[in-house]
Specification:
With 185 residues, the protein is of the alpha+beta class. It has helices spanning 6-34, 45-65, 70-102, 107-110; strands at 114-119, 127-133, 136-144, 155-162, 165-170, 179-180, 183-184. Strands 1-2-3-5-4 form a 5-stranded mixed β-barrel. Strands 6-7 form a two-stranded antiparallel ribbon. Helix 1 (6-34) packs antiparallel against helix 2 and helix 2 runs antiparallel to helix 3 (70-102). The protein starts with 5 loop residues before the first helix and ends with a strand.
Length: 185
């Protein structure tokens, strides 16, 4: 192909696609920011580069160490690359993408959440609360909205967040009007 043995072509594609893969790993955020990449998951650069890398690596190895025909080697290499890309996509990239979005939350998202006091909140001071989230437990410093002591183990509701500190009130499951958008009623 192109006047070169297929073994050399496979090796050249492997070196170039491997190098581009490393560059993409280091600069993917910049590249994605500069170029408006399509939202279609099958056209992502990491999958295309993975296909080229695995396909050329298996093609090189088959050309070097087997006596199979070049056409058969090309088909087998493409099949191996497709399987590898499918495995990467469904078992690595999709879970990472969903984990990335599930870990993000803003302080406004915490307002109205139930939590448990893990360090007693003194009347005019700060304690600590623990929230159970989908991504795991989150602890936050807390103070009482009514300047009353809230002992450890008490269930509280986050009324509002102020500079990273949860302003909490004792949770009364029978009083659903405890929260009003933006503050305590």
């Amino acid at each position: 192909m192109f006047g070169y043995p297929l073994e050399t072509v496979y090796l050249a594609v492997l070196v170039v696609s491997g190098g581009l893969t490393l560059l993409y790993i280091f600069f993917s955020d910049i590249i994605d920011g500069i170029f408006d990449m399509p939202d279609h998951p099958w056209l992502s650069p990491q999958l295309i580069l993975s296909f080229l890398t695995v396909g050329s690596a298996s093609g090189y190895l088959f050309e070097r160490y087997t006596g199979l025909s070049s056409a058969l080697i090309g088909l087998v290499s493409a099949g191996i690359a497709i399987i590898a890309v499918l495995l990467l996509h469904f078992f690595v990239f999709v879970p990472l993408r969903s984990a990335e979005t599930s870990l993000n939350y803003s302080e406004a998202d915490l307002e109205g959440s139930l939590a448990k006091v893990i360090v007693t909140v003194p009347a005019d001071g700060f304690g600590e609360i623990l929230l159970q989230r989908k991504s795991g437990a989150v602890s936050k410093p807390a103070k009482s909205i009514s300047n009353e002591e809230i002992v450890s183990g008490t269930e509280v509701i986050i009324v509002k967040m102020e500079n990273g500190i949860a302003v909490v009130a004792k949770h009364d499951p029978y009083n659903i009007s405890l929260l009003h958008k933006g503050g305590y009623v």
